[in-house]
Every structure is written in structure tokens, then in C-alpha cells.
Amino acid sequence: MAKPIEPTPVLEGKNAENFLEQTRIEESAVNPKKAKFLHECFDIYQKFKV
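Now predict its structure.
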């Protein structure tokens, strides 16, 4: 029997910033819909970060 999958932890603070820097949204070779979604996520993060 398989083990249950544990939830993925949410990135916060410096870890989230490092992740966003490493993804390089502007330089990524993703479709425009996904790039737009990532930009929206980044904008929301910027508004709510402490």
C-alpha cells in the first residue's frame, strides 16, 4: 500500500524571494498564459510581503 503524499510547504520570506529570482520569469521559455500567471503571482506577493 502506498504512503500518503505530504503537503508541499509554502515558501515565505527570503525563500520565496530566492525562488522567484531563480525562476527568471522574463527569461523563461514558457507559454504566454503561464508567464502572465507567474507575473500576477509575483505582483500579489509584492503587495502582501512584510
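The longest helix spans residues 32-48.
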